[in-house]
Amino acid sequence: MKQTPLFERHRALGGRMVEFGGWEMPVQYPAGILAEHRQCREAAALFDTCHMGVFRLSGPTVGAALDAMLPRSVSGQAPGSCRYNFLVNAHGGVLDDLLTYRMDAGTFLLVVNAGTAEGDAAWLRAHLPPEVKFEDLREAWGKLDLQGPRAFEVLADLGVPVTTLPAYYHWMPLSLFGLEMLISRTGYTGERGVELYFPREQAAMVWDRLLAHPLVKPAGLGARDTLRLEMGYPLYGHELNETTTPVEAGFGRLLNLRDRESIGATALRQPPARHLTGLRLASRRAARAGMTVIDPVSGQTLGTITSGAFSPNLGVAVALAYVAGAAPPAPGTPVRVTDPASGIVLDASVAPLPFYRQGTATT
Amino acid sequence: MKRYSKEHEWVELQGTEAVMGITAYAAAELGDITYVEVPALGKKVKVNDVLCVVESVKAASDVYAPVGGEVCAVNGNLDADPALVNQSSEDKGWFCRLTGVAQTEFDALMTADQYAAYTAGLK
User: What is the pTM of this model?
Assistant: First the structure.
């Protein structure tokens, strides 16, 4: 298993280490998932995201080359901006979800998931034309996410006033702690926050300096999961995989599928037969991935849970599920979740996404 | 006096009536408890039958009957406040009471010292 440069920091903090995408990562620290979740919703949480992959693609034709691969066009993406996108196969199945950062006219950064990074690199190398330069920055760059409604106060105290920060879903270069960094106003929590990129060998220094601020506490993958679930954000391997499409996952309106061709576009133009759907459970008891969603009246199978957990902010369990149908089910529709293995039967109803509506991400 | 099972339940016997829950070790291992399913009153269980279900943020786990008996009371506070299991696992976080418990089943469980040695060996 791979370790990030912060492995010893996590151990020293009492982090409970688990396998994630081939990496040994902290699922929680002694404070616990609920406290770390609250820390991110109320103050500022620091996440080690050094396991994620960063690639740099460059060349005069890079925009057109990426447009031929990605269902959301990037050639018109403005330098300084970040966009959510998907790497899909010929069937429209998701190989990965990613962010594209436009550095300048001829350069993009792609930020990808840890467990899929190796396959992404191979796919990109195989499909990019030879004139586009592909650089794997995974061993050179480190990354930390600082997320929470008070994250900007932290940055201001460190000499980065809020007026100098990039706009939501934008990035800029930043000098901090004597390092040349890249900062973007992006994240996976629904809260105001940034992702910081810097030389990987400096990860422990950046981590220590940020954690020294009294508003900042570390948070692990457990809280990262409950935070993203409350926002209805997909997690690769759960809501997204090679058998699901971005359209089924609810991102059809982000895509540019008309009047141009890209890998998988033909398949993605077909109307979806199922939709990623939010479910609010009737109690604190969670529906878990793999459980079956049924119609409570007819007993007919409607779909499958992809993620589920107790929602700390809502006080009940919530879940994401793929539900069959030409259109997404209407909010409020009652459903039942069953699990033949355990005999569980749970009542739930369709809920609009995000589940949590007080997030500060865009504020 | 309490006795402990290898499945990390504690049980305290008074006559033929027992109160049980999960150990502080188990609660710490599970992390934040978010839901506890307690059994129905009157449910009869044999030793090692599934008695309760406890859920943390990450997963659900079965809790086994450390001794056989009939459920005569359950901790109604856990429904609204499952965190009691983390905060006070061997007191306010009790799960249920059983009647008709055999002393021999209780005696077969580990003492506190034996359980401490057992969990030390798991680390």
Answer: 0.96
Nearest residue to A211 (alpha-carbon basis) of A328, A54, A84, A43: A43
Is some CB atom of chain A closer than 8 A to the CB atom of B116?
A: no
| SS3 category, B31 | coil
Question: What are the strands of the beta sheet with A94-104, ordered from one edge?
Answer: A82-88, A94-104, A107-112, A53-58, A133-136
- Burial category of B88 from C-beta neighbours within 10 Å (exposed 0-12, middle 13-18, buried 19 and up): middle
Cβ atoms of residues A190 and A363 within 8 Å: no
ipTM of the complex: 0.91
| A100 Cβ contact list (under 8 Å, min separation 6) | A66, A70, A74, A77, A82, A83, A85, A108, A109, A110
> Which residues in chain A have their CB less than 8 angstroms from residue B60's CB?
286, 288, 342
A291 chain-B contacts, CB cut-off 8 A = none
3-class SS of residue A7: helix
Tokens of A183: 């900062």
- In CATH, which superfamily holds the domain spanning A273-351? Aminomethyltransferase beta-barrel domains (2.40.30.110)
Chain B residues within an 8 Å CB radius of A317? 34-35
* Contact assignment for B58 to A33 by CB distance below 8 Å: yes
Smallest CA-to-CA distance from B82 within A347, A36, A288, A316 is with A316
Quick one: fold of B2-101+109-120?
OB fold (Dihydrolipoamide Acetyltransferase, E2P) (2.40.50)
Contact B34 A310 (CB under 8 A): yes
pLDDT in single tens digits along all 123 residues of chain B:
899 999 999 999 999 999 999 999 999 999 999 999 999 999 999 999 999 999 999 889 999 999 999 999 999 999 999 999 999 999 999 999 999 999 999 999 999 999 999 999 997
